[in-house]
Amino acid sequence: MNFASDNVSPFCPEILEALTKDASVNAPAYGGDALSQQLDAAFSELFDKEVAVIPVTTGTAANCISLSELVSPYGGVVCHHEAHINEDESTGVAFFTGGAKLLPMDGPAAKLEADGLDGFVSGLVDRGVHSVSPECVAITQATELGSVYKVDEVKAIGEVCRKHDMRLFMDGARFANAMAHLKCHPADVTWKAGVDAISFGATKNGAMAVDAIVLFDTSLKPRIEQARKRSGHLHSKHRYLATQLLAYIKDDVWLKNAGHANAAAQALADVLIKQGASLTHAAEGNELFVKMSPDLAGKLRDAGLMFHGWPSLGADVYRFVAAWNADIVQITKLNTTLG
Amino acid sequence: MNFASDNVSPFCPEILEALTKDASVNAPAYGGDALSQQLDAAFSELFDKEVAVIPVTTGTAANCISLSELVSPYGGVVCHHEAHINEDESTGVAFFTGGAKLLPMDGPAAKLEADGLDGFVSGLVDRGVHSVSPECVAITQATELGSVYKVDEVKAIGEVCRKHDMRLFMDGARFANAMAHLKCHPADVTWKAGVDAISFGATKNGAMAVDAIVLFDTSLKPRIEQARKRSGHLHSKHRYLATQLLAYIKDDVWLKNAGHANAAAQALADVLIKQGASLTHAAEGNELFVKMSPDLAGKLRDAGLMFHGWPSLGADVYRFVAAWNADIVQITKLNTTLG
Amino acid sequence: MNFASDNVSPFCPEILEALTKDASVNAPAYGGDALSQQLDAAFSELFDKEVAVIPVTTGTAANCISLSELVSPYGGVVCHHEAHINEDESTGVAFFTGGAKLLPMDGPAAKLEADGLDGFVSGLVDRGVHSVSPECVAITQATELGSVYKVDEVKAIGEVCRKHDMRLFMDGARFANAMAHLKCHPADVTWKAGVDAISFGATKNGAMAVDAIVLFDTSLKPRIEQARKRSGHLHSKHRYLATQLLAYIKDDVWLKNAGHANAAAQALADVLIKQGASLTHAAEGNELFVKMSPDLAGKLRDAGLMFHGWPSLGADVYRFVAAWNADIVQITKLNTTLG
Amino acid sequence: MNFASDNVSPFCPEILEALTKDASVNAPAYGGDALSQQLDAAFSELFDKEVAVIPVTTGTAANCISLSELVSPYGGVVCHHEAHINEDESTGVAFFTGGAKLLPMDGPAAKLEADGLDGFVSGLVDRGVHSVSPECVAITQATELGSVYKVDEVKAIGEVCRKHDMRLFMDGARFANAMAHLKCHPADVTWKAGVDAISFGATKNGAMAVDAIVLFDTSLKPRIEQARKRSGHLHSKHRYLATQLLAYIKDDVWLKNAGHANAAAQALADVLIKQGASLTHAAEGNELFVKMSPDLAGKLRDAGLMFHGWPSLGADVYRFVAAWNADIVQITKLNTTLG
Hints:
homotetramer; 339 residues; alpha/beta; Aspartate Aminotransferase, domain 2; Aspartate Aminotransferase, domain 1; 2 domains; seven-stranded mixed beta sheet; four-stranded antiparallel beta sheet; 11 strands; 16% strand; globular; PyrdxlP-dep_Trfase (chains A, B, C, D); pyridoxal phosphate (chains A, B, C, D)
């Protein structure tokens, strides 16, 4: 059982079926095909608003290309210290934006809090050309520590953004896991709360390789498309990105996969807690951050579980990520195995 | 029959099989998996030299990431005016290299000639900090106009590069088509001729989405891997790039596909010439540039053929590209259809 | 007599006086001083329009910082092949703009012609994300070959820019020389003709080191000021840039200096023609491009003249640039010296 | 009395004399003149080592151009949170380096400590392509809070750099003030301690506008010269940068000016302490950070003193900077004025 990350999982049957079905016919390149042409409508229905969809194949690309239009080369992007863009995307943000600076701040369980954000930003605006002023806020939903922003929390952040004339971006690499937890409408936690654009992740949750930039401000589309091409992220056989995305949202496959992953994480949490471990904070998505003894960690590894230590939260803290294909029955059986 | 481009084709059965086979198991992310670990060895065997392989999903990414280590932000990349990097990759080269300038020159059928190159470059070197000095030469094999560099031609270019201390890069988006034509060893026309790195294209010739950067100078690997990550081109489910590439070169699928495409182009050329058309220059790969009357063009479109006009070669010139899945029998039947 | 360039000249007495006068008192930094605060008004009067002035110390900085707001990272800047930004500013334009590409074209005596421009641009617009579309046109006044755009010529270019929704930038490194020749109002050949911004050069024509970005579209000011700071071009002792500029335009020093340089060039042309040389094209500013025998070139060098060969115009062509401090009496005496 | 910054001061008589002397003759441009040609030798003597000198006109340019060769686009620059490159140079570092990230850390009085640095860096190296690894350390001498690194402190930092294979850069905007305090040989605290390059500031300490990049690793010179030109920082009338620098170091003018500024700061500290204020930390250069009552602050302002609040150190903390031209007699008289 591999809990090292959700991206150790393969792609799901629905996506294999879609790719297979589309594997034998010719179609126009670069998004001119019938499947690609359906994307905007399909996601507009999903989000209950006219949106523009620009698919790419990685979360880093989705995040950085989005930010390239949400912040100037002289501006700053406020994010949590734990944010993927700050910790795991090399110098991507500066590269794509032409120099913009990340302005990391703290907050519980990798979440920004509106009040703290307001205070942080207030100290940074209007300082003239020498300093970097925040022009955009980036939040991750679900966060890198597996927590999930509630609707009201995003709304409050959206209001701080409006107050200081900043854009609001959402890194949704695990947006499906957040939605499976929140059970609200996708609109409530995005554009209705002030989000300008989201990277709508599919790769971790059952796709082979596709994360979609979804623009709630469709005026951004032309420049985003140029930024995508310029950085080598426009696929010639674009339909294979489209077909993955369409299969992913059709019949709520994305929510089914994420719900399964979240449930698997809960099942695993139950097992681990029974073994004497504790969670550093509530597990709301498909990630667990677990405090446990070296003994227990060793026993789990002996039982075939794969997972990473997470030293930034403590020497005895470990991360477990459950994917869409986690075997819940097998997880439950761990109670027996571990005794 | 769609001759608009070779990237209108789907992916080939061997690659579907490979993807399917690999669709149901977990594996380490970011290239830590067993398939990804086989890439260097497989391509080292193919090229008869120790190489480093860094797969990405587009030709633009493969070209621009490669060039980012072959030229400084202050230098120039000599290429043909028709080069894909000059005509079809937006401002990608400047973006990835931090500012390097394309220095386009002419040559017959989109090929650089060693003598012309030497003269061109000699006028540009040693001009001090105000001017852009050429640091790299980029050639396309097969070229954007369907011609193919002979081994001796690449060798001669390689010598000019050594003379002026320039790197030599090969855009191999259609390298398979060139090799199917040349029938030489891949080493002869690459590293043995002085090529430092090649973008080894698979997407156009039967893959879903993968072009590999193959480094003959393996010392470039660490920086190229950083450049790939930084630009969002490192896939988490990296194995799906690896599995495509391994299936592509196994049992010479790449040469079989390209040989078929080249043969289809020849069959189409025969048909068109019989109808009164002529080729602007010899068709050595899978692309035809055809001079014909508006009448004939209309007849072909009525018969269901799709293709583009190519005004840069003349108002009455059209491009036909045959893909790995072109139906040669159907092409031959055109003789009957067209009368 | 040094005709190698006009930047071999020192700075002029009026500017020394201004610098000296300002050398002994404290003043706010970064443009908060009284002299800097006068710049906008002084240049608004000069140009008969409300403008914003951002001084820097080199022409490359003035050009590239201006262009950073007139073209996107995905766009192109149309210019003449001979343009300083194309030939003499390294990879500056791509650096400052985040990747924008120069799209050089031809035209007589280094001038773009409106008709040719229209045709050139028409073939480049609306080609989609793969290609670079022209977003800005840059002309040099006076040009790198010493010719001067007439008012109507700039107007016609301005109309082509409006037609294709492009910005118009003027590299005015030798704007004073152009104005001394044209004798029109500075407004006529700039904003009234459609120019959005000019680099108003002073360094070559009597300043120590200052070229001013003058924005006719003042909405560009905030970003240009950020671009200046970000690139290290905001001076702490900003008043010394201001004092140079104010002294330069006060009492028409700029036109007096340029008029002298132009007259010196004419005087030199008379001498050279008498000696059997000919001009490759009319000398309208302070630069001469002279076709002459090696014999005559040798005689001139023996007589102590310094000047450069200009091989791009021919093996027997040489450039002579007269500066604001050229000694016309001594030039005239050459008739005697050379016999 | 203006203590807002040392850059409110004008330039000093020795530099006016040098500029004046050089104001009436022609000389080769772009550093080909006799004065510019003396720079390397003059600074090699000053530092007792063969160095390469590349003058620019601002500290931001000197810092960022230097860093562009000391860190890759994928790397990090460790610095103090208070560092000028982190707080006052906009997004300059990312711009010039092509994306490199600042990795700020803490330390007393704006100084990095070797032990803390070693610990900080150890946690950041070898984390793979996803994360930013430190490639360079930048320290400021004297620091932004007026403290000065001792020779042994720089040496210890140099050793940490060697240990982790990082470059060491020194922002010497106030290097003269540090040297006037340390009274050691300039070599001891720079190349002998492991510093690869320094921005040798002159502007704040009596020049009009010149800060020199001094390369102790002369192999960096060609790329640094390209980086300077590319960013618009190569002056055509380069001799005026050279003449300022030569006058600045001749007869120890730089140390005389800095010694005066430091003494003025001490005199002011004595006055303020007598008035009931206290220093937040020892004043070693020409800057004071003063904790005092609003009452005293008001009295000082009434007495004509100009200075800034420094809220990052506390609501009741203020900064006073004494320049080379501070009037020590007048400062001493404050005792009488303030009563």
